[in-house]
Amino acid sequence: MRSIIFAISSCFFLVLGRGAFAQDTDLTKYVDPFIGTEEMGHTFPGACAPFGMVQLSPDTDSVQFIHEGKYNKEVYRYCAGYQYQDKSIVGFSHTHLSGTGHSDLGDFLIMPTVGKVNYNPGTIENTSKGYRSLFRKETEKAEPGYYTVELDDYKVKAELTATQRVGFHQYTFPATDNAHIILDLTHGIYNYDGKVLWSTIRVENDTLVTGYRITRGWARSNYQYFAMTFSKPIKNYGCRNNEKVVYNGFWRKFDETDNFPEMAGKALTANFDFSTKENEKIKVKFALSAVSTEGALKNLKAEVPHFDFDKVRKATKAEWQKQLNRVQVAASEEKKVTFYTSLYHSFINPVEYMDVDGKYRGLDHNIHQADGFTNYTVFSLWDTYRAQHPLLSLIQPKRSADMINSMLAHYDQSVHKILPIWSHFGNENWCMIGYHAVPVIADALVNGLEGVDKERALEACLSSANYKKYDGIGDYLSYGYVPHETSRVGASITLEYSYDDYTIAQLAKALGKDAIAKEYIQRSENWRNLFDDKTGYVRAKSKAGEWVSPFDPLDTHAAGFIEGNSWNYSLYVPQNVSGLVSKMGGEKRFSNHLDSLFTMHIPDKYFEHNEDITREGIMGGYVHGNEPSHHVAYMYNWAGKPWKTQERINQIMKTKYLNKPDGLCGNDDCGQMSAWYIFSSLGFYPVCPGSGQYAIGAPSVDQAILNLENGKQFIIKTKNYSSKNIYIKSVKLNGKKWDKNYVNHTDIVNGGELLFEMSSRPNKKRGISKDSYPYSTTK
Amino acid sequence: MRSIIFAISSCFFLVLGRGAFAQDTDLTKYVDPFIGTEEMGHTFPGACAPFGMVQLSPDTDSVQFIHEGKYNKEVYRYCAGYQYQDKSIVGFSHTHLSGTGHSDLGDFLIMPTVGKVNYNPGTIENTSKGYRSLFRKETEKAEPGYYTVELDDYKVKAELTATQRVGFHQYTFPATDNAHIILDLTHGIYNYDGKVLWSTIRVENDTLVTGYRITRGWARSNYQYFAMTFSKPIKNYGCRNNEKVVYNGFWRKFDETDNFPEMAGKALTANFDFSTKENEKIKVKFALSAVSTEGALKNLKAEVPHFDFDKVRKATKAEWQKQLNRVQVAASEEKKVTFYTSLYHSFINPVEYMDVDGKYRGLDHNIHQADGFTNYTVFSLWDTYRAQHPLLSLIQPKRSADMINSMLAHYDQSVHKILPIWSHFGNENWCMIGYHAVPVIADALVNGLEGVDKERALEACLSSANYKKYDGIGDYLSYGYVPHETSRVGASITLEYSYDDYTIAQLAKALGKDAIAKEYIQRSENWRNLFDDKTGYVRAKSKAGEWVSPFDPLDTHAAGFIEGNSWNYSLYVPQNVSGLVSKMGGEKRFSNHLDSLFTMHIPDKYFEHNEDITREGIMGGYVHGNEPSHHVAYMYNWAGKPWKTQERINQIMKTKYLNKPDGLCGNDDCGQMSAWYIFSSLGFYPVCPGSGQYAIGAPSVDQAILNLENGKQFIIKTKNYSSKNIYIKSVKLNGKKWDKNYVNHTDIVNGGELLFEMSSRPNKKRGISKDSYPYSTTK
Predict the structure, then answer these.
(1) Which residues neighbour B307 within 8 Å (Cβ) at sequence distance 6 or greater?
(2) Which SS3 state, helix, strand or coil, does residue B742 take?
(3) Could you report how far apart the first and last alpha carbons of chain B are, in Å?
(4) Domain boundaries, chain A
(5) Whole-angstrom Cα distance, residue A418 to residue B261?
(6) CATH architecture type of domain B1-30+325-349+622-779
(7) What are phi and psi of B236, to 5 degrees?
(8) Is there a contact between B321 and B48 (Cβ–Cβ < 8 Å)?
């Protein structure tokens, strides 16, 4: 078993009683940063502040994206640079994405070594070939904002912590005259030869080093600057540029490998040398900036003007405690670990992306001043519009407004004049489909989020939804669907555009723009254009209006679809579930159809060439490890069978979220997987962000208090909840009977109490009348 | 004969009489931008404003620095991108160095074409293979701030003009539906595959395009941003990225070659398409910035807020007239062309290097705000400290102060804490030897230049002169010379450090710091440590104090020397010529020694492997085409034979400065060759900048008025000057007899009149007493 730094005190709960809640509880102890770090989760175990620009974490491999001229599949496992089962660490780098299915970053790898300087990382099998080190798992521990491990090759204890913009390393060395800090600018995640476009290292004085690197990765050109300072003067330093330099002017007047203070090139690895006494600590503060080395230095001075490692560790831990405390749950110790680790994972991405003075690199790569907002980046919107952004909008509204203002700044800077699709570090990577910044914005604004110019937001949404060049929108507008000739994944796109359009309608309605609302409600019905009544599934269609054949609803790679098969995607009409139910033959047939999804057997062939889907991630044909089905288990609410939703949600939470490194059944996807868990365990879920409602599922905590930013509390209580009592017998909202299958956003933010009375048997009479269904029509 | 745009009106001079002077004379008509554009001069013929950031000029070849894995010598001829005898033009690029012996730049090539889009430049022999075009020489004309040529392949007339930061193109097209503007970001001077580290093109709207490129050339990393605007909307556009892209994220959702508005890569060439009527003009304004595309756009809007090409052409011409008018000469028409073309060439480099808002990229690559000064770059100091900077300090003191403040900013930003050696575009290329920012600063400040913090300047000079890591300074301080083990060119270095140290002494003295002055006067005598009394030459010496053998005083590549042989370099003691004369056996022997220099025969073998020296550039063993001898002809002033200086100076001016494209006998070197001519034709020359004196030579104008910035005039008159009357009979300063062989800087800047009475026979009695010698001791 991995070690995480908390000791579950069962005594404590004996005293307080299960379900009781203590205000001063240390919630960070329930966070296990190792969950998701094995196999599919793609989370990282290292240190970061909530939404921090720095994610300082160990990398266990530096897998090359291109291996002998071919795509190296192995790199996928290392999206966060780390796999839990690895036995050696290559070093500690400062930037990591959390849970993505493609990756990048790993900027500025630092590694402490002892002995002869070695500029090569070595291999995972043979650490002696490079600066890499073996470690024993029992020495590795992590908590929010702190990570430690013992590097056995060097007998160095490594400790990491971080503020928003500064990574703080503390290395305890043995007595040696050959202690080194290696800084490898060639290291990267999803690395390849040629990724570094340019890099520099400037030794400003004997304790301060600055520099930058520009990389060409998933982020087309990513500018990362740094300022690094040591707690002790450098004795000596050196650098290797491991490239064949064709041309370097005529300036070779210095030995650039030895104590030359301004190194530049495409493949720099540097060493900084020290003599240490037994147990002497060398501390390294490493600040980032996307603007300049001057910006990094400002960040360094503003955030960590001292060398007190423990002070930073404590402050960051306190910040995590403050953030986690936004939801106080009473539940079993095991569930608290799942819950708070999920909450932790929801509070990592997006990340702040500006200097302390508000300067940041825009999408146009000019330096902008964030005026009245905090700029964020890493918008994995195809994933996160579903639950991660709605969660932040509910429990982190200030940040949510900042994120939306960041998206609007992106829109302003976009040469296309559209909102982000998948954006990071001043780049748009166009990953996946849809224009899902739109539902994020619409959901938040319809729900009354303050701090965003709503008219400007609507303008940006409209502009994004009508940019004909982007991914078939032109044809979508002409044909009412994205034809197969236009996009091989046109059916998925059409379904998602239809949903996105619904949210524009809701935003327009909220702004009193009825004509726009009407137009977009009409667009939101475009899903119907691809629904094949004969097969009962959504299918790809040609421009001529013909269904594309052959058609296999189970094939994820079938014509028309992406990251989901037609079986699952055909259920993607969150904006009009009742309409879909009718289309699928009424409530009974629909409910049976859903049942079959969760129970069917999927032949092996469907798992081939499918990185995202594993046997562990599915239930029958339901794929929890990928996003398009995240709302599906809630759909019984529209079919007179809400108890079946309760059953399935409980089952998913129990089997797909496990407290172990490989406990996530799919990529965490910047918090989306985690946000699903958080909502679901509270008893409701945003099936259709933008609707103003959350569909009720099945709570799995004893109690939860949402400490809202408006100062109010919304308390979720369960009565008789147990691992067997998973069905809702009745619900009371603020003491009054509540027979709806949904909760309104306004009821939550106004504060109050939601009481679920649970039972071991389903209440098949509750929530079966049409008027209890969530937003039953798409007015 | 080439065509330059001026018609010499002989009538005009018949009326005014030769030697008379009219205030409203158009001086720009005497500038022939083609002088120096053939063979060795390395000047460019295109359009620029005085000291302008933009040098918009035709490139006739895009020679690759590396050809089939080897250095391509041919590239040297194309240091300014142009050779006069070429018959085709590849396009018009926006940055050029003037007269350098190594080069770079050629940023942002624009070429108008008609017909099918071709992204390849084609070859100099076969223009039909690419976008390149043939032209007829008679259609090519140039004047300060304007260039025109007819591109025969496309029947397009090209016209160029420029402001400080904006290149303005005007292309007159035939009637066609296939008019194109090609923008080639792969083009460069001293180009090679891999030079472009990164580049982007953003089509902001149908008339505005922005972008940038980062290149790795002589400037180790050169950031150039642009904003380009068309007078007419683009019909269509496209782009090719001519590189094998290994990895580009997953974002290939667009056809990036066709109307895709945000192109990026390492090898971009774009086309912008128009339909044109017969004789329709497409105008392109192209602004630069080293800061950002936002900065380029600011520059564009501030400097050229309209599309009136002629207005810009006139304004820039007027600016040139204003600058050239700082020296009003009366002389033969032919000499005026030599003189004003030289003055023009002296007013091109250094160039302004900041945006209109004062932002610029510093040596640390951070963006700085120029506070209270205008930032300049392109400091070819090994060349220009000799006469170019002294000239600017005399007739452009405001700019001179700005340049010095720019050097001090460089010092502040330098991680080495030293002044520039050879700096350009936020980079130090370390080219050549010495710390010659020191004499530039000392000369100007000793001469009373205002606007520079003198204490800070002295600090920077001292720091530069004591940076032990730089080019043997450590050993220079230990041994009193740079030993041969330390540097293969240690003798040249020692001589130049000795001189530089003299100037520090002068600056310290001026600031009342006598201890420092004394120390540096001592250092300035270090030349003696390498003077071999036995051979009578300066020689390389080992650490053990042994002369390095074999020794051939005529060999430019001999041990110890660079860009000059021992014969010439042994005369490089400008700070103590009298001392050198003594060392060389007294005045008579010294004078004979000089005589032999000008008359000796140099065997062919000494010209091998010597790009800089040609038979045309030398007189006997005297090499005017390279800088180390530029003071030599003036040295008779210290040997009782000033009339021999007069003779030689006259001879050099007459034979080494010709009004034809190949009329420069060596690289103009950012104005140094030209500044030599200007001073010499006025009758004096800064043999030893920092001494406060100019050695008298032989004037070759009828009259010259220096219109000084302090509002005063210094008038140089000659009496009886003719092509035969080249000897000075007598001199009067402000009406009083002046029997010195020098003029004091203070006498010039105080205003007044210097009258040279000339004769066909030398006055062998004038200037022969020791007290007439310039600064005869180095106290």
Answers:
(1) B231, B283, B285
(2) strand
(3) 53
(4) 10-322
(5) 13
(6) 2-Layer Sandwich (3.30)
(7) -155, 160
(8) no
A746: amino acid identity, one letter: T
Partner-chain residue, chosen from A221, A253, A429, that has the shortest CB–CB distance to B198: A221
Distance CA B261, CA B271 (A): 12
Closest chain A CA to residue B424? A249
For chain B, state the CA radius of gyration: 26
| Angle of the B454-465 helix axis to the B437-446 helix axis, nearest 10 | 150
Kindly provide the ipTM of the predicted complex, given to two decimals. 0.94
Nearest to A197 among B198, B212, B431 (CB): B198
Give, in degrees to the nearest 5, the angle at Cα B254 between B252 and B258. Answer: 130
Sequence-separated contacts (24+) of B548-552 with Cβ below 8 Å: B548/B484
* Residue B214 · residue B197 · CB < 8 Å: yes
Q: What is the pLDDT of residue A24?
A: 60
CB B636 within 8 A of CB B645: yes
Q: What number is the average pLDDT over the span A383-406? A: 98
**B589: closest CA of chain A, how far (Å):** 38
For residue B16, what are its two tokens? 């005014």
Contact between A313 and A145 under an 8 Å Cβ cutoff? The reply is yes
- Subunit contact B246:A210, Cβ cutoff 8 A: no
**The domain defined by A10-322 carries CATH number 2.70.98.10:** yes
The pLDDT tens digits of the residues spanning B709-755 come to: 999 999 999 999 999 999 999 999 999 999 999 999 999 999 999 99
**CA-CA distance, A57 to A46, in Å (whole number)?**
4
Chain B residues closer than 8 Å to A198 by CB: 197-198, 214, 216, 221
Nearest CA in chain B to A289: B366
Neighbour-count burial of A732, counting CB atoms closer than 10 A to its CB (0-12 exposed, 13-18 middle, 19+ buried): middle
Helices B333-346, B309-324: axis angle to 10 degrees equals 100
* CA angle B161–B165–B170, rounded 5-degree value: 25
Cβ separation A250–B102 shorter than 8 A: yes
Q: Which of residues 156-195 of B touch A (CB under 8 A)?
A: 192-195
- Say how far apart CA B433 and CA B569 lie, in whole Å: 13
What tokens does B753 get?
Answer: 């009149």
Is residue A123 within 8 angstroms of chain B, CB to CB?
A: no
- pLDDT tens per residue, range B70-124: 888 888 999 999 999 999 999 999 999 999 999 899 999 999 999 999 999 998 8
Q: A310 burial class (0-12, 13-18, 19+ CB within 10 angstroms)?
A: exposed
Secondary structure element (H or E) that encloses residue A359, with its range:
strand A359-361
Cβ A65 vs Cβ A88: under 8 Å: no
Q: Do A247 and B203 touch (CB under 8 A)?
A: no
The answer to whether residues A418 and A464 touch, using CB atoms and an 8 Å cutoff, is: yes
Looking at the complex, report in whole angstroms how far the Cα of residue A487 sits from the nearest Cα belonging to chain B: 10
Which 3-state string (H, E, C) describes B362-427? Answer: CCCCCEEECCCCCCEECEEHHHHCCCHHHHHHHHCHHHHHHHHHHHHHHHHHCCCCCCCCEEECCE
Which CATH class for the B41-317 domain? mainly beta
Other Cβ atoms closer than 10 A to B279: 10
CB B633 within 8 A of CB B654: no
Q: Position A118: which residue type? A: N
Task: Determine contact, residues B62/B107, Cβ cutoff 8 Å.
Answer: no
